[in-house]
Design brief:
Blueprint: E1 2-12, E2 19-27, H1 29-33, H2 36-40, E3 46-53, E4 57-65, E5 73-83, E6 86-97, E7 109-123
Antiparallel strand pairs: 1-2, 1-7, 3-4, 4-5, 5-6, 6-7
Length: about 130
């Protein structure tokens, strides 16, 4: 628990380059003790296909349904590691985009996305 700073970098195969986002937020005791995958996986759209847990990390594979109108499927593999006041993770996703009316044909097919993130504890919450 405490005040944490997170930095997330996202790279998409159809993007113009990496996008970086920073966020500072207070993590409650309940959030710190909760399953880290629960926050990452939308229960109604995603399912965990595989999961391996060690004392300080989780490796996982998930599959998600995107917007039902688009009939899009996403599949990804990732890791989450936490040790004391630091945390890190990575997730590689493949999104299968169906051809849609009014969409450029090059947008259809498999698109990949990689997210890496790091976190560090800054201290107690204000």
């Amino acid at each position: 628990p405490g005040k944490w700073e997170f930095e997330t970098k996202s790279v998409m195969s159809m993007g113009t380059g990496p996008a970086t986002q920073k966020e500072t937020r207070c993590i409650t005791r309940e959030e710190a003790e909760a399953d880290p995958l629960a926050a990452m996986v939308e229960e109604d759209r995603c399912k965990v296909l595989d999961r391996t847990t060690t004392s300080d990390s989780i490796s996982f594979e998930i599959e998600c349904d995107g917007d039902p109108k688009m009939k899009m499927k996403m599949r990804g593999k990732g890791t989450f590691t936490a040790s004391g006041g630091t945390a890190s993770g990575k997730m590689d996703m493949t999104v299968n985009m169906p051809a849609m009316p009014n969409m450029p044909p090059q947008m259809a097919g498999a698109m990949t996305m990689t997210q890496t993130w790091t976190g560090r504890r800054l201290g107690a919450c204000d």
